[in-house]
């Protein structure tokens, strides 16, 4: 036995349901109101911006450019800067989850930035 799709039957079912929704105000409220409520609720509840990520930093340049980079990065609200102690292994910080990322500024960062190489 084969089941085939009949457009006329589907159309008559769609018209019947449409009339039912228009006749019953509660169903109309659910059909139109719930998606609106969900859009408003999830629009405020869901935020895909990641903020306050722990970022271990090591400024080996100590130039004005490197200090400015750290100031801007820390002031963005996306990162919480955690200065690394000299000789501290960045991989250990990541594996122990003391930081989610590492920013190491190399000694000639300011000079290379001025030359357009960085």
The largest pleated sheet is described as: 3 strands, parallel
Distance between the termini: 71 Å
Counting DSSP E segments of at least 2 residues, the number of strands comes to: 3
- Average the pLDDT over all residues and give the rounded result: 89
- The string of secondary-structure elements, in order, is HHEHEHEH
Main β-sheet, spatial strand arrangement? 2-1-3
Can you give a write-up of this model?
This protein is of the alpha/beta class. The chain is 53% helix and 14% strand. The chain is built from five helices and three strands, in the order ααβαβαβα. It has helices at 7-23, 25-45, 64-75, 90-95, 109-114; strands spanning 53-59, 79-83, 101-105. Strands 2-1-3 form a three-stranded parallel beta sheet. Helix 3 links the parallel strand 1 and strand 2 (79-83). Helix 1 (7-23) packs across helix 2. The longest helix has 21 residues, at 25-45. The model has no long low-confidence stretch (mean pLDDT 89).
């Amino acid at each position: 036995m084969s089941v085939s799709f009949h457009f006329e039957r589907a159309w008559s079912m769609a018209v019947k349901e449409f009339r039912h929704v228009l006749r019953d105000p509660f169903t109309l409220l659910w059909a139109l109101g719930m998606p609106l409520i969900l859009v408003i609720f999830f629009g405020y509840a869901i935020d895909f911006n990641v903020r306050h990520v722990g970022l271990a930093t090591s400024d080996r340049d100590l130039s004005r450019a490197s200090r400015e980079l750290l100031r801007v990065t820390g002031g963005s609200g996306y990162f919480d800067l955690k200065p690394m102690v000299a000789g501290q292994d960045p991989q250990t910080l990541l594996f122990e989850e003391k930081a989610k990322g590492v920013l190491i500024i190399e000694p000639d960062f300011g000079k290379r930035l001025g030359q357009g190489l960085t």
